[in-house]
């Protein structure tokens, strides 16, 4: 459906939450060092909302927010796994955890460190992060 993109599927550990996402088979993953990403080891790639579809489990999701409350850290109420969330940098998109994708569709992963401890400065200086949620 999307030129150059493939459909990945994934979900939480217990299977209560399932989703599909259209993205490249070669993922650009962010490794953020902000307080919550460090604690949760939240590595993610960003996609536009139009390329994400929750297949099941909306009733099984709960959300945690803090500080500016722009990031919506959604996770499964049963197993506690955050397979996707709404990032502060891209509130019109989703941050997808590559380790929550089903096997077989990812060809490669490039990891980019981002200095979330100085979030405002890092996002302002980054050349492409805010555009990653644009179709």
Automatic annotation (TrEMBL):
Limits of the CENP-V/GFA domain: 8-120
Classification via InterPro entries: CENP-V-like, CENP-V/GFA, Mss4-like_sf
Keywords, ordered alphabetically: Metal-binding, Zinc
Short name of one Pfam family: GFA
Gene Ontology molecular-function annotations: carbon-sulfur lyase activity; metal ion binding
PROSITE patterns according to UniProt: CENP_V_GFA
Domain of life of the native organism: Eukaryota
Family of the protein in this entry: Belongs to the Gfa family.
This protein's name: Centromere protein V
